[in-house]
Amino acid sequence: MAACVDKWPPAAYLCRLPEKFYCVLPDCTATDRPVVTASAAPAPAASGSSGDYVWDVLRAEAQDDADDEPLLRKFYHGPRPVAAVAGAHRAAHALWSDNRRAPALLLQSRASEVFGVDIHPGARIGCGILLDHATGVVIGETAVVGYDVSILHGVTLGGTGKESGDRHPKVGDGVLIGAGASVLGNVHIGDGAKIGAGAVVLRDVADGTTAVGNPAKPIIGKKAAPQRRPEELPGVTMEQRWSD
User: Fold this and answer.
1) At what angle do helices 101-115 and 81-97 cross, to 10 degrees?
2) C-alpha to C-alpha distance for 49 and 56, rounded to whole angstroms
3) For residue 237, pLDDT beyond 50
4) pTM, full prediction
5) Could you give the CA distance from residue 45 to residue 52 in angstroms, rounded to a whole number?
6) Are 162 and 135 in contact (CB under 8 A)?
7) Which end of the chain is more exposed for a tag (fewer CB within 10 A), N or C?
8) CB neighbours of 41 closer than 8 A, spacing ≥ 6?
9) Could you give all domains of the chain from N- to C-terminal order, each with its CATH number?
10) SS3 of 195, please?
11) Is the previous residue joined to 215 through a cis bond, with omega within 30 degrees of 0?
């Protein structure tokens, strides 16, 4: 699955629900991801504003939660905390991209206070993200996170002290980042890579590689992981044993 994070429009999100791709903003078809129109996909709002599309996808995700949980479907719907965190970031990111910085930062601050997760509204996060337990996750302004990435609690995608410029990690598709790991600086984590719990990553990690330790180094002595289908990537399977 080729990463397309560098081609994303500033506020574009593709939200993938089972067997469907939802196009959230009008220009998201500019990416190299497939976009399939489905009957359940949120229809573009008449105004065409980014805020309208954000609400469309939040409603679609709420329906997906209800489809998975009979209790929610029959009685009430309360979004799962990890979904609420992602939704809050989507809204804040849309505001940030629309140059409405004050309300974006206000929403970020409130989400951090409520959920204990600090995601800068400028960060770009692909669909299918799982913030498992979520508490203590920090993601910086220029970070980019690909599709179907799983991030456990206490993870930092941070900088190395620079105050401006592109200074945060770029995480590929299907990556699994273990609890307490820190990925620092403008480094690239390849598709299907695994970052071990407590690792401190200061250099690029190749596709399909498991990196552990402080400073993090790839586990050696095994063959490189074979090309896998998207559903077999560690960010989807949550398989935490080494894969290289």
Assistant:
1) 170
2) 11
3) yes
4) 0.68
5) 6
6) no
7) N
8) 20, 22, 23, 60
9) 123-244 (2.160.10.10)
10) strand
11) yes
